């Protein structure tokens, strides 16, 4: 009876024992290259629909700068904060999660290029749709990153109170990092838009 | 011919089984021309019905353009749809995406042809230009939904956040379809306007739909002038 109560107590406070396994291996060079090309092409497609050369020059690098820039600028802060808070997931695993998230986002950007090029050719909506696409991709990527980073942390250690506290700290850390990344991305976007 | 009728029947009754059976490349290359043919004929019939709102050469113009209204958005949206599904960890081979798109187009075209008499009956009472355009848009949405359902259900099982991938795919397809319809206009020619195959590339479908909706309810308070836009705009 006592043992049953202990299990119930643990279940009440412990995060799911079978957290989804994140991809923590670093992606290969062609996959990273495809993601970079995806963001670069997305910007190029929108730039083609800009009204003037100055507008095109601003729009061209926007997708790549906003997404890659935000990740490069805030990724180290996440890793430093992770170590500072005494969390246990291996740093290469966290870097792998971030790299895979970037690659998935870049693949979506590449897939959106034909549609954006069509709108650039036939309407004045390309810049607005680029912003919409980047917001959607960023939301998806940040949500992916939250789940992946948390799962990477949960993959270390045995279920128990200690892991529950680590999970709580990890969630706070990743949520803070997500806010920082979103703000840095918005700042880069506003800078490129000349605001 | 029996094969063709059997294929039409399968497209309507069990499109998912059709996708499953013909997924490999050899089967895909055999069946693709037939599905494209069905899409052309079905859309052509629907286009003629739409052209009948004006009559004359517009019958031919609308019949020729209507299949493009189905093909162009699908071609533009399928890469995005595949990327979104892959981002949600659903591996989708290109052959399956292509076949699902073809079956969806054929299904939409057959349903459009079947809905033709209803639209014709509506146009026969001369409902007015703006209402005719909105009726066309509404009909296309209605016959397009079963096609979208085929694409959604053709995706392999597994992955996560499938609803998000589906919603994103539908959004991209819907945007592309709407803009393609605007680009290929006129389908329903204005009673007073000269009939042309294509109008200049100007503005976009959303500003036009806003103006049409206002005009349909008799609100002419806002002036709307279409200006050239985009790379293909005439003043570039």
Please explain how this structure is put together:
- The complex is a heterodimer of chains A (195) and B (236).
- With 195 residues, chain A is mainly α.
- Helix content of chain A is 79%, strand content 0%.
- Chain A has seven helices and no strands.
- Chain A is elongated and about 60 Å long.
- In chain A, 44% of the residues are buried.
- The model of chain A is unreliable at 1-19 (pLDDT under 50).
- Chain B is an all-alpha fold and 236 residues long.
- Chain B is globular, with a radius of gyration of 19 Å.
- Chain B starts with a helix and ends in a 20-residue tail after the last helix.
- The model of chain B has no long low-confidence stretch (mean pLDDT 85).
- Chain A binds chain B through residues 20, 48-49, 104-105, 107-115, 118-126, 129, 136, 140, 144, and chain B through 72, 75-77, 79-84, 86-87, 160, 164, 168, 172, 175-176, 179-180, 182-183, 201, 203-206, 229-232.
CA radius of gyration of chain B is: 19 Å
* Low-confidence residue ranges of chain A: 1-19
Shape of chain A: elongated
What is the string of SSEs of chain B from the N terminus onward?
A: HHHHHHHH
What is the C-alpha radius of gyration of chain A, as a whole number of Å? 20 Å
Helix- and strand-based class of chain B?
Answer: mainly alpha
| Share in β-strands of chain B | under 5%
What is the number of helical segments of chain B per DSSP (H or I, 4+ residues)? Answer: 8
What composes the largest sheet of chain A? none
- How many extended strands of chain B? 0
Which percent range fits the helix content of chain A? Answer: over 70%
Number of strands of chain A: 0
What's the gist of this structure?
The complex is a heterodimer of chains A (195) and B (236). Chain A is an all-alpha fold and 195 residues long.
Give the arrangement of secondary structure elements.
The complex is a heterodimer of chains A (195) and B (236).
Chain A: H1 2-13, H2 29-48, H3 53-59, H4 62-84, H5 91-122, H6 126-154, H7 161-192
Helix pairs in contact in A: 2-3, 2-4, 2-5, 2-6, 4-5, 4-7, 5-6, 6-7
Chain B: H1 2-13, H2 15-21, H3 25-51, H4 58-87, H5 94-124, H6 129-154, H7 162-183, H8 205-216
Helix pairs in contact in B: 1-2, 2-5, 3-4, 3-5, 4-5, 4-7, 5-6, 6-8
